[in-house]
Prior knowledge:
Blueprint: E1 2-4, E2 10-15, H1 21-38, H2 50-64, E3 68-74, E4 77-86, E5 102-110, H3 119-133, E6 138-141, H4 148-155
Parallel strand pairs: 5-6
Antiparallel strand pairs: 1-2, 2-3, 3-4, 4-5
Helix pairs in contact: 1-2
Amino acid sequence: MKLNNREGECMKIIEYEEKYLEDVRDLLVELEEYIVSIDEDHLDQVGKDYREKMALVDLEEVKNNNGKCYLAIEDGKAIGVIMGIIRKWEERDYLDYKCPKNGVVTELIVTKKTRSSGVGTLLVDKMEEYFKEQDCEYVSIDVFAYNTNALKFYSKFGYHPRMINTIRKIK
């Protein structure tokens, strides 16, 4: 999958390759720093080991859950990443839920300088294509409530809230 950017350079979507690990780390830090900046509860943080460990934790989750990680590459650098897994249901889940085969987008970030250029759309399309190939009936994405930009972005694809997590500080 290829797309020419505003300068006419070719951008492509590829499956994750280890040589882009540092770029993925940079992208995840960029996302988490943004989440920290909009967190009105001041609970999120970029811990001291976040950069080193988070990408590895996410990639291990992808590996262990029949998932995929796709990268948007431009000029030899990852400018976007999407990770997704196939949800595993537990026995108790079936007590009150139909438990359809469900793909879960666990991470999506496009670097700030290339947002609104169609890269995020291509990444979502690629992940949804994979989930369809795996016979998933649904795709779910957890979105931080204060991330109104992400909520608007996903709503363009027809995503809508199903569960809402509420919070109140008591001490």
